[in-house]
Design a protein that fits this description.
Layout (H helix, E strand, L loop, with lengths): L4 H19 L2 E2 H8 L3 H13 L3 E6 L9 E5 L5 E7 L3 E8 L4 E8 L7 H14 L6 E8 L2 E2 L6 E4 L4 E5 H9 L3 E5 H12 L8 E6 L3 E7 L2 E2 L30 H5 L1 H10 L9 H9 L3 H25 L3 E5 L6 H15 L9 E3 L5 H13 L9 H15 L7
Parallel strand pairs: 4-7, 7-11, 12-15, 15-16
Antiparallel strand pairs: 1-3, 2-3, 4-5, 5-6, 8-9, 9-10, 12-13, 13-14
Helix pairs in contact: 2-3, 6-12, 9-10, 10-11
Length: about 400
Amino acid sequence: MALRPTSRTDVNRSAILAHLGAHGPASRADLARVLNVSPALMTSLTKDLLAEGLLVELDHSPSQGGRPARMLGLASSAGRAIGVKVVADHVAFVEVGIEGTVRRSASEPFDASATTLLADLAVLLRRFIAGGSNEPLLGIGVGVPGSVDRQGNGLVDSAQLGWQQVPVGATLRREFSLPVLVENNVNALAVAERLYGVGRQHENFLVVTIGTGVGAGIVVDGVVLRGHGGGAGEIGHIPVLEDGPLCSCGNRGCLESLIGEAALVRRAREQAVIGGGSGMSALRAAADAGDSAASALFSEAGHLLGRALAGIVHTLDPEIVIVLGEGTAAWSHWSFGFEPALRSSLMPSRRAVPVAVETWADESWAQGAAAIVLATPFDSEGVAGDQGRLVRARLVEQSAPTGEPS
């Protein structure tokens, strides 16, 4: 996949809007320092944003003896986006402001295997949107565990959900007459990390998620790599054990079939570590209470993850690895196996690669989905297609002075 400087520019423009929305007016120098870009590039970026009517120049900041700096602010703080996380048994929603802050959230039961799944999803989404403010809605972002052809099309294949060519984007656009962007949920998290998280300080990083599934978001030169069909980063399907357990993808011995939540729970039940009707919360509680068998299951999973990630680090050479997902609630037990396996499997020159493990909430998946809406106004790669242009048009419209054409 070709990388172009305009792609990095797009992300930086979105990050400027996000930072000003979250923290208020700032000078160009402050923005350059916080977003880790050169002053010359920041001058160029903000010049474009001012010309497009998305930023305004405000009063000068107080001087400490030098030349006063001109402050920049958003032309309008209006605008919100909806993020949706879809998994097999429930769907989570968030409403975020233009700066990416979660304003409200909800979770509803959902059957991803139902014949009426798209109609059911639309009903739940309509109910959530109706409970929000009257502030302009820029668009809807949907994160799914699977491959998405393009964000603007939203045609989904997901082994985890049992979906083949499910037209999520087209259906929701027809139902709501709003821009709808659909993306692999880990790629969406990578976008959120690039805009708001640890990834804001790095051009090349790897987001790894553990929990129900195992996945990765790959960011190279500030751009999320999607691959030919939108399925890049499916590290959960790296073959690990020949003739191993059956995976949801239909193959045997994939990494996810060995260390995903279902695999850990199954083995814990087989070993009588937890009862037949118990799940991950019981397994984690057992490990927290000092059960050696429970701790060993997590440690073995960490060992396998560490060895697999060593190969990916060698391939991609990231500045940092960021671990996320519901599985991180038990990271203290995973880490016993993970750290030795990762470090010992890396070449000496790569052994110091930092690993950041972030705290997790279920709404983080949905926040990632909302982030793809907020990142699309400057989508020169065309991944978002017409939907990205519609989001940008709505954003510009909100920035136009009252009484003037937008």
